[in-house]
Write a structure and sequence with these properties.
Helix content is 46%, strand content 16%. It is α/β, with parallel strands linked by helices. It folds into 2 domains: 3-139 and 281-296, Rossmann fold (3-Layer(aba) Sandwich), CATH 3.40.50.1400; 144-275, Rossmann fold (3-Layer(aba) Sandwich), CATH 3.40.50. α5 (118-129) links the parallel β3 (103-108) and β4 (134-137). α3 (53-71) packs across α12, α4 runs parallel beside α5 and α6 (144-159) crosses α8. The relative contact order is 0.16.
Length: 300
Amino acid sequence: MTVGVLVMAHGTPASTEEIEAFYTRIRRGRAPEPAQLAELTARYDAIGGTSPLAARTRAQVDALRAMLAARAPGRYRVAFGAKHTDPLIEEAAAELHASGVDAVIGLVLTPHASTMGSGEYLERARAALGDTPFTAITSWYDQPAFVQLLADRVRTVLADGTGRRRVVFTAHSLPERVRASGDPYPDQLEESARLVAGAAGLTDWVVAWQSAGRTPEPWLGPDIRDEVRRLAAEGETDTVVVCPVGFVADHLEVLYDLDIELADVASSVGLGYARTASLNDDPAFVAVLADVVAAAGPTA
């Protein structure tokens, strides 16, 4: 049996010239206002002109392909599809279907399940694959090796400094209405933070949210910037250590929203800032993904 592995991620513009089309696609076909486009372009400029996410994701997919081939030669065919950039999820699904695989496993490069996040990726893949048997990996945040990997990164940062250090676990915010709908995302994020904190031996940690969209409706909170200001007002900590538990690679929400914007907030209220290293294509992380794929089957 030959099994296709459809790896999915958000996608990012590969050049400055692609930012407007990318922004338009994110906005479901509505072109951004000039001021909105200028602001987003300035954020990319602040981290070097473009996000490294495309290269990081490509490295993750290539490493996963190589690891699966080493573990089970000839069994897996790996393709990548993005939500907002080429190749799209549908294009990658068509590639796997045309290759004649017997079944497809869908893996989204985000640890937690959400109807507005990974759920949308998986449903697009399922629809594009038609009658090809499809197994969706809905979440993998609680994989012991993944938890341990993040806990090790937290301990590394905590060991590199003196004074009290409060750990803040963060992930991309979603509209608050997901709580009422029964979406698993908020609870999974809390559980994810609890697992990593436990593995790292933490007693002083909180959960916050970041990168909320600019819409009139409320988004999941507290916002991590407000949380940092609150911690400073309490006078309890010298340095804020951020563990972006919801992200698996360097990209705009890490390199700008955290390393620039949040670091500036921390500095403005007299606090230090530190962040755990991104997972990117760390072989230990790729092994987690390979384990998840192998466990998903099929077994024939």
